[in-house]
Design goal:
The complex is a heterodimer of chains A (421) and B (361).
Chain A (H helix, E strand, L loop, with lengths): L8 H16 L16 E9 L7 H14 L7 E4 L2 E10 L3 H14 L4 E3 L4 H11 L6 E3 L16 E2 L12 H7 L5 E7 L2 H16 L3 E8 L7 H5 L7 E5 L2 H13 L6 E3 L6 H4 L3 H7 L3 E4 L11 H9 L10 H19 L5 H12 L3 E3 L2 E5 L5 E12 L5 E12 L14
Parallel strand pairs in A: 1-3, 1-4, 4-5, 5-6, 7-8, 7-9, 9-10, 10-11
Antiparallel strand pairs in A: 2-3, 11-14, 12-13, 13-14, 14-15
Helix pairs in contact in A: 2-11, 2-12, 3-4, 5-6, 8-10, 12-13
Chain B lengths: L1 H35 L3 H29 L6 H18 L4 H23 L4 H21 L1 H4 L21 H24 L1 H11 L1 H6 L4 H27 L9 H14 L6 H15 L7 H15 L7 H16 L17 H6 L5
Helix pairs in contact in B: 1-2, 2-7, 2-10, 2-11, 2-12, 3-4, 3-5, 3-10, 4-10, 7-8, 7-10, 8-10, 11-12
Classes of the chains: A alpha/beta (421), B mainly alpha (361).
């Protein structure tokens, strides 16, 4: 038996003390850690995902910011607004709340940014809003995070210039009942907060129009076997709501076909993505005719500001062939911030009061429709109703079937529900 | 031989004094830390407090590994359960600090006890895998148990309270609160290791069969050790939850588990104090690696690999490693009289060596 001695601690402690003392003296922040403008410079700290499942988020954020800044003669690293130099610094995350907390604190406390712009994911968004409550001197403009509760948390320094995940279903419930004549819908959705809000948004509209829910199945993320769920769909159901995403949605579509389910589908905002559209013939045939809602317009959208935005977007480095949901939301949000800075003449004095007044009352016509703000600093926006159709080339595509204008946020944060929410 | 023993004794007693001086210096540096950094609002929460709770949780892992030879991947989960306990009591039940914290620590410690009941009969890779699996079970539960954990949204806000004699809402006070807990946890680990219980644990680590033959109920000792380590991890969880002001499934995710393991390995998988060095390095990388490269996770990985390559026992083992090299050189230059033909049978490998040689218990 050996009793261990603390032999290795001598150098460990020495190195540790040295590292701490050396590091604390060698990482001066951009503005010395203060949240005031230095020499007329406005520093914007951008949070976006650069690791993990949403690693492309940073490239999309930079593409969106690039479009907005180039329009005023700037670059992704900054420019000049009303004579004030704007400097943009970036912090990458992995989409989790822990990293978002670390990086947003670094942006504010170490880099001394005046404005935080971001984040991407809902988990990050919930954490950033909680942090925003503790630093009232900094203004926060959301990137693409969509939980309903973010603008209901009472952070008066937090602004969101796009719809939440319940608003993304705005108008679809009424459309399903009135136009598609679905009277009873069965709900299958993943069991976490995003599908709660997304399904809640759809079914609140559907039930208000007179529709009924014939059953709910909440399945864990990553479920691959939907046989038992499919067998629970009662007779007399007119359609199935699919609140699944990625591979889960593809698995469900495939099994629905092999199980002989021929009911029409209503998709959540992430159900009908490239995974489903590019799937095998069975999946494709099941997906045709699916209606869904979201902030991204489909083919046939005629807003005159849309195509110039798409043209500017595709010229950005590392841009996708067409804008993703992230680049669209980041663009609308960043352009709103620029407009707010222009209207307030870059005045960040008096606890950024002029900027916040400008942001809170902002109205403008974005590439995806008119944006205005409600009293909770949450945008009132247009929402798009989409249908999956087969194109002339035989490939599936999403076509715009309708728009819901002036979609406002509800006051309910949805949880798992049975029947109507 | 006598000369060698005298030389070794002299050297070790000198080293002992040196260690205490360094310990006081390190503690002094930690105490003056809030006053020497230029931006306390960044340095105290992002580096100071985070390093402390990462270190406390990693210390519970190192305690198990060092004194009983079990590598547990459930420590982050246990800390998370403690954090959930505090969050549930404060957010859902509206209780105060003095109710929530004991409940949190009790929940974490009880969870550790249950993990021990399941896992104590296994060892080595099987223990590691079963603790990892139990951690993932709880992650799935936390992600979906909306009534208890509020699923992915988590529980927030968890406000640092003003306790009257200390206002934890002040970042400096909270830093000292976390520092005091870290020092207490360290001393507690050292104390427990020095008791007859701790000696028995080390005996079980080195030769469970021999200890069993001597009449020790080795599984009971293992369960007690794992429960004690869970108590330490739970204290880390309390600091964590007040630092983050919220608790969500990310706290008990695989990523968080690996963070604790990386901290322990970089600091020294056999060094109770070294974990804090590992924690400081990891938090510094988390915060500043992006200033050097967009591929900051790769940089963290490279640092990890470099440490494993050149200091297999972690930063905390560098001293011993260097001394081995010096001893070897000295032996090469010392006359043959220093060599003893009759050597005592070597004891089992120290844990950190055993880990690197794949022979841990």
């Amino acid at each position: 038996m050996t009793l261990k001695k603390r032999k290795g601690l001598v150098p460990a402690l020495a190195i540790g003390v040295t590292v701490v003392l050396a590091a604390t003296g060698c990482s001066a922040g951009a503005n010395g850690g203060s949240s005031t403008t230095s020499g007329g410079t406005i520093t914007i700290g951008v949070l976006a995902t650069s690791q993990g499942n949403l690693a492309f988020g940073m490239d999309e954020a930079k593409a969106a910011i690039g479009v907005a800044m180039q329009a005023i003669g700037g670059t992704v690293d900054g420019g000049v607004i009303n004579g004030k130099t704007v400097k943009i610094v970036y912090a990458g995350t992995d989409g989790t709340s822990g990293t978002a907390q670390t990086q947003v604190k670094k942006l504010v406390e170490n880099d001394g940014v005046n404005i935080v712009f971001g984040p991407v994911s809902g988990d990050e968004g919930e954490a950033v809003v909680q942090y925003a409550l503790t630093v009232p001197e900094v203004t926060f403009v959301n990137g693409s995070a969509s939980p309903v509760g973010m603008t209901l948390a009472g952070a008066t320094n937090f602004f969101r210039f796009h719809g939440d995940s319940a608003m993304w279903m705005g108008g679809l419930g009424k459309y399903a009942y009135d136009v598609k004549k679905y009277k009873k819908i069965y709900s299958i959705a993943e069991d976490y907060s995003f599908p709660y809000d997304n399904a809640g948004g759809f079914f609140s509209g559907f039930c208000a129009a007179g529709g009924k829910v014939s059953g709910n199945s909440w399945v864990p993320v990553g479920t691959t076997d939907y046989a038992t769920v499919i067998s629970q769909i009662p007779a007399g159901t007119d359609a199935v709501y699919v609140g699944l995403g990625g591979a889960d949605a593809a698995s469900f579509l495939s099994q629905a076909v092999t199980s002989g389910v021929h009911l029409p589908l209503v998709g959540g905002s992430i159900a009908v993505d490239t995974t489903a559209l590019a799937g095998d013939a069975n999946i494709a045939s099941a997906a045709i005719g699916t209606i869904t809602g979201g902030p991204v317009p489909g083919a046939g959208y005629t807003n005159p500001k849309w195509q110039p935005f798409v043209d500017a977007y595709v010229k950005q480095p590392k841009a996708f062939p067409s804008p993703s949901i992230f680049s669209i939301l980041y663009y609308n949000s960043f352009e709103s911030l620029i407009l707010g800075l222009q209207q307030s003449k870059g005045d960040l004095s008096n606890k950024q009061g002029a900027l916040r007044d400008a942001l809170g009352s902002l109205q403008w016509d974005s590439p995806t429709g008119h944006i205005s703000m409600d009293k909770n600093r949450q945008a009132i926006v247009d929402n798009f109703l989409i249908q999956v159709v087969k194109g002339t080339d035989g490939k599936l595509k999403q076509e715009n079937i309708s728009s819901a204008t002036g979609v406002t946020q509800g006051t309910k944060v949805y949880d798992r529900f049975t029947g109507c929410p | 031989m006598t000369k060698l023993v005298e030389f070794t004794r002299t050297r070790r007693s000198g080293l002992s004094r040196y260690i205490w001086i360094l310990w006081i210096a390190a503690l002094g540096a930690a105490i003056v830390f809030p006053f020497v950094v230029d931006r306390p609002r960044f340095w105290l929460p992002n580096i100071g407090v985070r390093s402390l709770w990462l270190g406390i949780i990693a210390m519970s892992l190192v305690f198990l590994n060092r004194y009983i030879g079990l590598l547990s991947l459930a420590q982050a989960t246990i800390a998370g359960i403690s954090a959930y306990g505090v969050g549930y009591m404060m957010v859902t039940r509206g209780q105060g600090f003095f109710v929530a914290v004991p409940v949190g620590i009790l929940a974490g410690t009880l969870a550790g006890f249950l993990v021990a009941l399941i896992a104590a009969r296994t060892k080595a890779i099987y223990f590691l895998m079963i603790t990892l699996a139990l951690g993932q079970v709880f992650y799935s539960y936390a992600s979906q148990a909306i009534e208890v954990t509020n699923a992915r949204r988590g529980l927030a806000p968890i406000i640092k309270p003003n306790l009257g004699f200390i206002d934890l809402g002040t970042i400096t006070s909270f830093y000292y609160f976390a520092l005091a807990l870290a020092v207490i946890c360290y001393l507690l680990c050292r104390f427990v290791a020095a008791t007859t219980f701790g000696l028995a644990l080390q005996g079980i680590r080195d030769s469970p069969e021999r200890m069993s033959a001597l009449g020790y109920k080795i599984n009971r000792y293992r369960i007690a050790a794992i429960t004690f380590a869970a108590f330490i991890a739970s204290i880390g969880g309390v600091v964590l939850v007040f630092d983050r002001a919220q608790v969500d499934p990310n706290v008990v995710s695989l990523g968080s588990t690996l963070d604790i393991l990386v901290v322990a390995v970089i600091g020294g998988i056999g060094s109770l104090g070294g974990v804090f060095i590992g924690a400081i390095i990891v938090t510094m990388l988390d915060n500043f690696a992006q200033d050097f490269t967009d591929r900051y996770m790769t940089l963290t990985g490279i640092v990890f690999i470099i440490v494993l390559l050149f200091a297999p026992a972690g930063i905390g083992g560098i001293g011993k490693q260097a001394r081995r090299v010096i001893d070897r050189r000295r032996k090469d230059t010392t006359p043959a009289v220093m060599e003893s033909p009759q050597q005592e049978p070597s004891a089992a490998l120290p844990t950190d060596e055993a880990i690197t040689k794949g022979k841990q218990q």
